[in-house]
Amino acid sequence: MGDVDAAGLTPAQARALFRTGTITPTSGYSRGYAQANLLSLPKEDAFDFLLFAQRNPKPCPLLGVLEPGQVTSPLLEGGDIRTDIPSYRLFRDGELVDEAPDATAWWRGDMVSFLIGCSFTFESALLDNGVPVAHITQGRNVPMYRTTIDTVPAGRFAGPLVVSMRPVPADRVADAVRITSRYPAVHGAPVHVGNPAAIGIHDLSTPDFGESVAVAEGEIPVFWACGVTPQAVVMSSRPALAISHSPGHMLVTDARDLEYQVP
Amino acid sequence: MGDVDAAGLTPAQARALFRTGTITPTSGYSRGYAQANLLSLPKEDAFDFLLFAQRNPKPCPLLGVLEPGQVTSPLLEGGDIRTDIPSYRLFRDGELVDEAPDATAWWRGDMVSFLIGCSFTFESALLDNGVPVAHITQGRNVPMYRTTIDTVPAGRFAGPLVVSMRPVPADRVADAVRITSRYPAVHGAPVHVGNPAAIGIHDLSTPDFGESVAVAEGEIPVFWACGVTPQAVVMSSRPALAISHSPGHMLVTDARDLEYQVP
Question: Which family does it belong to (chains A, B) (predicted)?
Fold first, then answer.
């Protein structure tokens, strides 16, 4: 697929490509459209996770929820949530046990699917406003870290907040806060600015997920709540069954990034 | 209680007053603190309603949820959700069957309580910004109307959107939109401006809830999603048991209005 203009594909075209087996990170696909994290759980755990998301809107901003038995939604018009993501992860009792481009064989009839906002949306807004995004410039996945900040528990779900880090030139930190705070549905304003040790991060060069990026002289590390938090919470809380996307391999939705801008 | 300085009471003092039997509308109590609508449902209906709220954030912005068996929360520190509201309503199979200042006798051990944002918060912001609020000036309850706009269904819950109406001078309509859009947790921006017939309201002088207010020459009727919507949805969807506050008789919370301002 080397010649595909990924940015120019409609979301439906991108999903069709992934449905037929293309496995690729989705950064850069379908420019202008929002991408989403996935967590699917059996009905018996769905109330607790829905409440968890309500109490933790920064890491778990819900763009949509597919009710038990539903496998499509207006966010993926004509699509199928079990096949339209490039890669899925299977968790049993909180352990990652499999990874595959099709989740149909793992599915149960009563699965509830949570679609959670993704920082790709606010990264586009940062770039459009001339704020550099180092991991994109450096051609890497964003670095992500478990923190000592606890999420707010709900029912059986609890665990650490996971954050992503972007180094921002000191004279653009205020702009980065202002711009991202206009996107509360995709993690919103930073949770922390400038002091990684205060949230339990002692070495920026060894992220827990993703890849490290260089922080240049004069840049401040800025931390945003991250959509990988639900996977960390699944690992801590050990529900019998959970299905997620593979990090970086997101659902490309039919919603435009700009729909999530406020006010 | 005629000499009580209602505006100067702390939220805890206001709740103590209502717990011991004072029955009064709460408009004007504990200035600067957010008030909330209540809907309590048995656990069996809680997932569907939580999903309903997620899908309908304008009429049902959740400030907090008390899990099955919980009767207090950080939003009512040291309080009891069954007693701390001035007046409660009991619905059985969608019918309003009782109204009382204490809901304890109606309670079940598995009730889940939803605390939903209230427009009193943005009315304070409108007044602070010099935008007149007619029903306050006229000493009346805000007029509310069922519309022909459907809410987004979730599980067993569906029904009409209820809106509140405030007449705004034509030269302040843009300000009213801008100011209230900064409070998405308390209904946010208007859902409609200027044409009541388009949303099924044929006579502004006969509201379905609350009291009518005069619309002066040069004023435009502006419509916001309303926290009475959950009660209209209960009446349409007929769950076996539901407990709400009585309209205008709200929970006074420990959260400050300003906590809900974005960005």
Answer: Belongs to the D-glutamate cyclase family.
